[in-house]
């Protein structure tokens, strides 16, 4: 039965891609599509960049969200879109390893792909990756945390679900901590996929190290939201100060920064994650090709604290424009 | 008198004693292994999480006892949480009214599940697998993935406050378990639930309207899931659409560790209490002993299996002892 399902799925995918190839081959104009795994606040912010691109260039970009985070779901939906004749895709790969098969089949048929948000593993058919550099962002957050702690103390390292990006973030945190002899990671908590699970594990870690924690670092979205909730409650109930830096700008996190319960977070550049890949695809549809040796484009991150919480968005816009201005020459050539 | 009743199994049955014993053994091991285990902060959080688990487990156990299941418990909790968040944050209604609206929605989901099961004769697995997706889709359709943050402080106090060092939720759990114990022990509806799960045909032949009983179980299941969802909102301080996403495994694990029969016909309130305690103790213990994060799920699964095997061994030994 399982074999039959796999065969049927492969046949359907093949049919869809074959149709896509026909459409792509006969299309006179490039058609642009944007695809993300499922409903999530991050993707909402990315879509503002996509919409801005459409508004500025007059190019229609069809946006589509999947039903869940699985690669299977993405394969089916993207194949169906390719079958409709889309030739240029900006995609958030649901699984950085699992997306390879889909990309290879699309690329063989002349479809151009740019990853946003997270990069498919090398070697990848995606022409570029635009997003945050996981390890560098984790290092930046850790530096900010240690500075807030006064250069010494004990840290709990909080990781999201196991995976390539999580491993890189973990490495980033450990590398920075290794530079400070008076800073130690006293516990690593991981596999935090859900909000309830994150709250439970982090509160267990606090209980296990009570009175011995100076700071916590979270490098994933879900644990960041959970820790922001948890430290708000912990500090409101008179718990001793625990410094914290997380990632992303969920409203819960921003409230906790404003109220002084956490120190800060790293703002990614979701607007840039939306705009820049489409600008690259537009240029490639006009005949530009990647400069040899280029692939990852760092869309940048900004450390957000109470000091710049109301102004950081302007800084991100400037950052984005700088990257767009440097695309031809640095990353693309004709 | 009390000891006689205890020995006769009228207060604690052998099965309950086994599960409770396993929980107490874990408490002793962790108390010896870690200085942090019996701190007030840890005890508060352990009992609070246990209380939340209990509502998750009850939502599943009440279905299991009738020989059915509810795969949509987490989605119902998420829908209840988002309904509450929307009405209290977006519409600005008073929170007691929002609780009523949210619980009405959760009861509505239970009614829908029950209707399809009993009137259309569809298997509970199929029905609740479908509604898991339907309710989750509504959760994200309404919330668009965003959380509702303006939760009144008086509502948050339910999930965050304490009395005599223990969370309010703990007392709420004890009261609920007491009511569940009473229902299965002394009410006609409770006995009919057990009879339906033990042997549906026999129950029908003895005059029980099993469809009505299964509908009742669905309503209770959705009510427990809804209450659990609201308590998570109160504990977190925001209504997150992701509430309930990890409930499925917990709901089955706590219910089964707690002695609820997968085939139906058996449930024990004290066993559920101990099952919830075992689950939080294991998770707490893995953090206390700093288990490798990448192997954590393997450790968790192994310990749950070991606990169940120990309880099974106790049952076998007891049966042998009775024969001899």
Automatic annotation (TrEMBL), chain A:
Residues 37-287 form the Periplasmic binding protein domain. GO terms for cellular component: cell envelope. It holds the Pfam family Peripla_BP_4. Its main location: other. Gene3D superfamilies: 3.40.50.2300. The keyword Transport does not apply. Keywords: Signal. It is found in: Cell envelope. InterPro entries: Peripla_BP_I, SBP_2_dom. It comes from the Bacteria. Residues 1-25 form the signal peptide. PANTHER family: D-ALLOSE-BINDING PERIPLASMIC PROTEIN-RELATED (PTHR46847). Belongs to the bacterial solute-binding protein 2 family. This is Monosaccharide ABC transporter substrate-binding protein, CUT2 family.
TrEMBL record, chain B:
Keywords: Cell membrane, Membrane, Transmembrane, Transmembrane helix. The lineage of its organism: Bacteria, Pseudomonadati, Pseudomonadota, Alphaproteobacteria, Rhodobacterales. GO terms for molecular function: transmembrane transporter activity. This is Ribose transport system permease protein. It is found in: Cell membrane. The chain crosses the membrane at residues 12-33, 53-86, 93-116, 122-142, 163-184, 213-234, 246-279, 291-310. CDD domains: TM_PBP1_transp_AraH_like. It comes from Litoreibacter albidus. It is a multi-pass membrane protein. Pfam families: BPD_transp_2.
């Amino acid at each position: 039965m399982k074999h039959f399902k796999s065969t049927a799925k492969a046949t359907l995918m093949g049919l869809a891609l074959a149709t896509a190839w026909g459409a792509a081959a006969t299309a006179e104009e490039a058609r642009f599509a944007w695809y993300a795994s499922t409903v999530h606040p991050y993707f909402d912010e990315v879509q503002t960049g996509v919409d801005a691109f459409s508004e500025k260039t007059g190019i229609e970009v069809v946006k589509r969200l999947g039903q869940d985070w699985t690669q299977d779901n993405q394969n089916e939906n993207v194949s169906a879109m390719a079958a409709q004749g889309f030739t240029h895709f900006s995609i958030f790969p649901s699984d950085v390893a699992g997306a390879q098969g889909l990309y290879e089949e699309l690329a063989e048929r002349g479809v151009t792909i740019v990853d946003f948000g997270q990069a498919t593993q090398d070697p990848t058919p995606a022409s570029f990756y635009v997003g945050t550099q996981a390890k560098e962002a984790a290092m930046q957050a850790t530096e900010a945390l240690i500075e807030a702690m006064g250069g010494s103390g004990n840290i709990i390292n909080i990781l999201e679900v196991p995976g390539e990006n999580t491993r890189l973030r973990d490495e980033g945190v450990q590398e920075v901590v290794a530079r400070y002899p008076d800073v130690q990671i006293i516990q690593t908590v991981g596999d935090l996929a859900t909000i309830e699970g994150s709250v439970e594990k982090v509160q267990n870690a606090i209980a296990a190290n009570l009175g011995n924690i100076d700071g916590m670092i979270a490098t994933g979205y879900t644990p960041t939201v959970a820790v922001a909730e948890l430290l708000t409650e912990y500090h409101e109930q008179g718990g001793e100060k625990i410094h914290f830096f997380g990632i992303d700008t969920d409203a819960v996190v921003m409230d906790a920064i404003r109220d002084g319960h956490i120190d800060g977070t790293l703002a990614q550049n979701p607007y840039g994650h939306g705009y820049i890949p489409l600008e690259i695809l537009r240029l490639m549809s006009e005949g530009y090709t990647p400069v040899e040796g280029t692939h990852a484009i760092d869309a940048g991150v900004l450390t957000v604290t109470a000091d710049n919480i109301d102004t950081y968005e302007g800084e991100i816009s400037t950052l984005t424009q700088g990257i767009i201005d440097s695309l031809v020459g640095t990353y693309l050539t004709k | 008198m009390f000891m006689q009743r205890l020995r006769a199994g009228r207060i604690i049955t052998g099965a309950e004693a086994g599960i409770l014993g396993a929980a107490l053994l874990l408490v002793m091991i962790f108390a010896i292994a870690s200085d942090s285990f019996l701190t007030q902060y840890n005890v508060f959080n352990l009992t609070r999480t246990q209380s939340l688990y209990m509502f998750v487990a009850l939502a599943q156990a009440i279905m299991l006892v009738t020989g059915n299941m509810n795969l949509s418990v987490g989605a119902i909790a998420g829908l209840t949480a988002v309904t509450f968040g929307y009405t209290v944050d977006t519409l600005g209604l008073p929170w007691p009214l929002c609780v009523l609206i949210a619980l009405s929605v959760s009861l509505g989901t239970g009614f829908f599940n029950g209707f399809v099961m009993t009137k259309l004769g569809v298997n509970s697995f199929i029905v609740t697998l479908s509604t898991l997706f339907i309710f989750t889709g509504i959760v994200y359709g309404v919330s668009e993935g965003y959380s509702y943050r303006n939760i009144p402080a008086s509502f948050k106090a339910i999930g965050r406050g304490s009395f005599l060092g223990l969370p309010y939720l703990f007392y709420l759990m004890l009261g609920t378990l007491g009511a569940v114990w009473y229902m299965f022990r002394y009410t006609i509806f409770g006995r009919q639930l057990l009879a339906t799960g033990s042997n549906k045909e026999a129950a029908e032949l003895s005059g029980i309207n099993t469809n009505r009983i299964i509908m009742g179980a669905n309503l209770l299941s959705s009510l427990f899931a809804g209450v659990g969802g609201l308590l998570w909102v109160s504990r977190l301080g925001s209504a997150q659409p992701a509430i309930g996403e990890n409930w499925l495994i917990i709901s089955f694990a706590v219910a089964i560790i707690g002695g609820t029969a997968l085939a139906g016909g058996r449930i024990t309130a004290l066993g559920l209490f101990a099952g919830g305690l075992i689950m939080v103790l294991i998770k707490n213990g893995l953090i206390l002993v700093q288990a490798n994060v990448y192997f954590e799920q393997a450790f968790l699964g192994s310990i749950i299996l070991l606990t169940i095997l120990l309880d099974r061994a106790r049952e076998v030994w007891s049966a042998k002892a009775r024969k001899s």
